[in-house]
Design goal:
alpha/beta, Rossmann fold, 9 helices, 7 strands, about 45% helix
């Protein structure tokens, strides 16, 4: 017997009108996601939007206590359930344990969002091998390990993978060789996995532009300095503002939703028009 393809786009009966909004609401209910790097920033924004849609979300970061607190905040939103796990994405044992705990708690896995990241900036000739390896380990090897550990579960549900790239994987960035190279590698990995896992699992990437996160604008940053930096970064952007985690989360929700069932191996570019690949 031929195995049916996963998650086909919902269709109405003859003469039946189906609202895409109703389809979207029902699509996410009961599904389970792992979001890495979800303590702050883009990962947190995606986790919040998924929980609001009724998805049970496992959020991960290096510190167990902070991730348990993050999960508690998510559950207070009143949507889906949440579980916080301390995990180092560069550790195969940690990654495997996280997938096992997800299956033990929720019984399935539908979405994997690889948002964990780090950065190191400086001229290439002054970059140490340890600094280079740290960025590559988190952003490339970490993405590889998480995808590898989740593949069997995602094949079972016909799930979705989103990997986080960056505008600088396309644009390049002075003093950011390791960061730009790692994000380019993530896109290449995404395309390979999209070919290998089709037709059961879709694999796409998001390459955000400048996003206003706690890392870029810490709470103790003076407001005048914050506004000046926003204005500087927004000036060359056609849409005249920096992005927010919610801007990226909406891109993620589309790629995870029913309207993206025929999209794989692609990169979305929420960057306000600054780069148009």
């Amino acid at each position: 017997m031929k195995t049916p393809l996963p998650n086909p786009p919902p269709q109405g009966g003859k003469g039946e009108a189906v609202s895409p909004f109703d389809v979207g609401r029902e699509w996410f209910k009961g599904k389970v996601a792992i979001v890495t790097g979800a303590r702050i920033g883009i990962g947190r924004g995606i986790a919040e939007m998924l929980v609001d849609a009724g998805v049970s979300v496992v959020v991960t970061g290096r510190e167990t206590a902070s991730m348990e607190q993050a999960a508690a905040r998510l559950e207070e939103r009143g949507g889906g359930r949440a579980l916080g796990i301390g995990m180092d994405v560069t550790s195969p044992d940690d990654v495997r344990r996280t997938v096992d705990q997800t299956l033990e708690r929720f019984g399935r896995l539908d979405f994997l969002i690889n948002s964990a990241g780090t950065r190191q900036f400086g001229p290439l000739h002054e970059t140490s091998l340890a600094e280079w390896d740290d960025v590559m380990d988190v952003q490339v090897t970490g993405t590889f390990l998480c995808c590898q550990a989740a593949i069997d579960s995602l094949l079972g549900t016909g799930g979705r993978i989103i990997n986080m790239g960056s505008i600088y994987g396309y644009l390049g960035r002075e003093n950011g060789a390791s960061y730009a190279a790692s994000k380019s590698a993530v896109v290449a990995l995404t395309k390979v996995l999209a070919s290998e896992l089709a037709p059961r699992v879709t694999v796409n990437a998001i390459a955000p532009g400048t996003i206003e996160t706690e890392r870029r604008y810490p709470a103790d940053m003076p407001e005048e300095e914050r506004n000046a930096d926003r204005a500087k970064r927004a000036a060359p952007v056609p849409l005249k503002r920096v992005g927010t985690p919610e801007d990226v989360a909406w891109s993620a929700m589309f790629l995870l939703g029913p309207g993206a069932s025929w999209i794989t191996g692609q990169v979305m570019h929420p960057n306000g028009g600054f780069v148009m690949p």
